[in-house]
Amino acid sequence: MKRVLIFFPHNLFPPRSGAHQRCAQMMQGFHALGAEVTLASSTYTSETLWRAVTSTELQTAGISQLRIHQSTIWDRRYVKYMHKLYQTLHRQPPLDSFHYAPPGLRRWFQNLVQELEPHVIIVNYAFWGGLINAAMQKSSVTVMDTLDLVSLYRPRFLVMEQYLPPPPISPFGIDPKFLREDFFDAFDFRVSAQEFAIFDRFRYTIAITRADAELVSKNTSRTRVLTIPMTQEICALDNQYDGAALFTPGRNPFNIQGYLYFAARVLPRVLESEPNFCLHVTGAVCDDLRAVPGIALRGFLPDLLSEYTHARFLICPILGKTGQQIKIVQAMAHGVPVIATRAAAEGSPIRHGENGLVARDANEFAEHVLTLWRDRALCQTMGQAARETIAREFSQTLLVQQIAPLLDG
Question: Is 245-393 CATH 3.40.50.2000?
Answer without folding.
Answer: yes
